[in-house]
């Protein structure tokens, strides 16, 4: 029998969810307004601000850069994060305890500090290309998410299945692709998506590793907002929300969204 | 060979974090001690400036306010969500995850539309005749706090729903059948069991607010400068990298000290661990 809740608590919760969803609805309304200034409720309906996104060269370029950085960083993070999570689960006794602490460091160290340090001590000191530093920064940022999600799905994997395959003569690499990977498939998909969305939305690292000629979408949005107050930013926001909805649908299909509440 | 298998597999990720995070951040902090005026010169300069002390105190105050508000809102909401029937719970969790996955720029921008001089709130209040002139809401500590609470409440809800779900209904009903009033059950049964989760949530929100950049930049501007925006300004506008490194070091030390201290407190206060 479920616990009965006081009506005041339920009323409060309704208000909280209006507070959470309301501002995003306002952004959607402002994006479709047929005015040259931001307003809500929208005056007339128009999609011209969506067309405007692609008419502005800076947005076209930064959307492309953001996608490139996110794809590269996510790919590298999975490439090195999957073996690391495997090692943490399979060879726990061999590895020192501080290693798992090391892998959560990117969450502990403020992103701004990481971004600034990469600029000062990598890009500037060693003349490393900014784009490379940006990808490295994003990879480090998303690595803990990848390791956490993959580890969670490895926790329910029975390693004796893998040992059986190897003792029956299956080569290690083939065992990985035919036994292990299919078993953690949903974890890999969820990790990919969380990593991708985290990279796409990042501000605090990217703000230091962008400049004239190279920028990401959120940084371009910040710059645009300081000069113009037109609905273009709202329509880009709507595009990003559509991306988020698509991502949530995929996570829901693979893992269930309640997975995120753990 | 097998002895090193674990290390071989973990080494690329380990190297990336050591070379891409630990070394550069350590170098940033190390550089703050190597100035000509002595090892703590940069820190003396930092704390001697009343402007910077104000920024530090403001950042702490705003972050504490955001944490306190998010704790209250998040706890009550998470409690209701955790006791909701299955289908409703899923919808509510989706409604909390969606803002969380939407970027910080988009979410701060929403408050720019709401709180602006010609924003929704001002025009509504004017139309209702409650105010004659639009109020200056942007670029005040209040606007930064509201936008940050908005930013972090979903995180708090999701952290606490998991903790509160783990409290069995039987326990709450047992308390009620033994004569405790609902408010007593809430404060004496539910609240103590949720303390570890509340601490985790509070740490996440406090450190997140303390080191944030986009929200104070958009809604606070020059008027409500915080540690993150000051650090960016020193690094990229005035190009004073020593000063920026000092702010970075202060942020790292405070963040890590809070995480370590609160993890210990959480372990000690966990009633389940006894």
From TrEMBL, chain A:
GO terms for cellular component: plasma membrane. It is found in: Cell inner membrane; Cell membrane. Signal peptide: none annotated. Pfam families: BPD_transp_1. SUPFAM superfamilies: MetI-like. Coiled coil: none annotated. The chain crosses the membrane at residues 12-32, 67-88, 95-116, 128-147, 231-251. It comes from the Bacteria. GO terms for biological process: transmembrane transport. Residues 63-251 form the ABC transmembrane type-1 domain. It is a multi-pass membrane protein. Keywords: Cell inner membrane, Cell membrane, Membrane, Transmembrane, Transmembrane helix, Transport. PANTHER family: INNER MEMBRANE ABC TRANSPORTER PERMEASE PROTEIN YDCV. Belongs to the binding-protein-dependent transport system permease family. This is ABC transporter permease. It comes from Devosia oryzisoli.
TrEMBL record, chain B:
One of its GO terms (biological process) is transmembrane transport. Keywords: Cell membrane, Membrane, Transmembrane, Transmembrane helix, Transport. It is a multi-pass membrane protein. CDD domains: TM_PBP2. Residues 56-260 form the ABC transmembrane type-1 domain. Pfam families: BPD_transp_1 (PF00528). GO terms for cellular component: plasma membrane. It is found in: Cell membrane. Signal peptide: none annotated. Its main location: membrane. The keyword Cell membrane applies. The chain crosses the membrane at residues 55-79, 91-114, 144-168, 189-210, 241-262. The keyword Cell membrane applies. Belongs to the binding-protein-dependent transport system permease family. CysTW subfamily. This is ABC transporter permease. It comes from Devosia oryzisoli.
């Amino acid at each position: 029998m479920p616990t009965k809740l006081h009506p005041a608590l339920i009323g409060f919760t309704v208000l909280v969810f209006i507070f959470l969803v309301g501002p995003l609805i306002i952004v959607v309304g402002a994006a479709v307004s047929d005015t040259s200034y931001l307003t809500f409720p929208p005056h007339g309906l128009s999609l011209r601000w969506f067309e405007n996104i692609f008419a502005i060269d800076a947005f076209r370029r930064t959307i492309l850069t953001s996608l490139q950085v996110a794809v590269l960083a996510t790919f590298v993070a999975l490439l090195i994060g999957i073996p690391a999570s495997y090692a943490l689960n399979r060879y726990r006794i061999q590895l020192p305890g501080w290693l798992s602490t090391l892998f959560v460091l990117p969450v502990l160290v403020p992103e701004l500090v990481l971004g600034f340090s990469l600029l000062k001590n990598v890009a500037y000191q060693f003349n490393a290309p900014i784009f490379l530093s940006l990808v490295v920064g994003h990879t480090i940022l998303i690595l803990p998410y990848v390791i956490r999600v993959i580890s969670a799905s490895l926790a329910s994997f029975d390693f004796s299945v893998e040992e059986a395959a190897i003792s029956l003569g299956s080569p290690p690499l083939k065992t990985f692709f035919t036994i292990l990977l299919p078993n953690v498939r949903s974890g890999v998909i969820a990790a990919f998506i969380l990593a991708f969305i985290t990279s796409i939305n990042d501000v605090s690292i990217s703000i230091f590793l962008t400049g004239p000629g190279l920028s990401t979408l959120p940084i371009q949005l910040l710059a645009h907002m300081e000069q113009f107050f037109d609905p273009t930013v709202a329509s880009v926001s709507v595009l990003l929300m559509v991306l988020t909805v698509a991502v949530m649908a995929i996570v829901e299909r693979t893992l269930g969204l309640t997975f995120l509440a753990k | 060979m097998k002895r090193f298998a674990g290390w071989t597999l973990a080494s690329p990720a380990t190297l990336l974090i050591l070379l891409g995070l630990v070394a550069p951040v350590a170098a940033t902090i190390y550089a703050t001690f190597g100035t000509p005026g002595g090892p703590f010169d940069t820190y003396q300069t930092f704390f001697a400036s009343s402007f910077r002390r104000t920024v530090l105190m403001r950042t702490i105050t705003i972050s504490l306010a955001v944490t306190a508000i998010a704790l209250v809102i998040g706890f009550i909401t998470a409690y209701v969500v955790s006791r909701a029937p299955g289908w409703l719970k899923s919808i509510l969790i989706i409604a909390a995850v969606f803002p969380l996955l939407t970027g910080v720029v988009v979410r701060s921008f929403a408050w720019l539309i709401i709180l602006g001089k010609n924003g929704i709130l001002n025009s509504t209040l004017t139309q209702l005749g409650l105010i004659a002139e639009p109020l200056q809401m942007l670029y005040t500590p209040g606007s930064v706090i509201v936008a940050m609470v908005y930013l972090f409440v979903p995180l708090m809800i999701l952290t606490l729903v998991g903790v509160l779900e783990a409290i069995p209904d039987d326990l709450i009903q047992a308390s009620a059948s033994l004569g405790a009033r609902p408010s007593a059950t809430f404060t004496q049964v539910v609240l103590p069991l949720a303390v570890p989760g509340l601490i985790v949530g509070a740490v996440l929100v406090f450190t997140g607010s303390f080191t944030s950049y986009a929200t104070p930049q958009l809604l606070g501007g020059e008027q409500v400068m915080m540690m993150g925006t000051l650090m960016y300004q020193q690094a990229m506008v005035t190009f004073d990298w020593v000063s920026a490194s000092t702010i970075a070091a202060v942020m790292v030390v405070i963040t890590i000290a809070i995480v370590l201290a609160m993890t210990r407190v959480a372990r000690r206060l966990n009633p389940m661990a006894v």
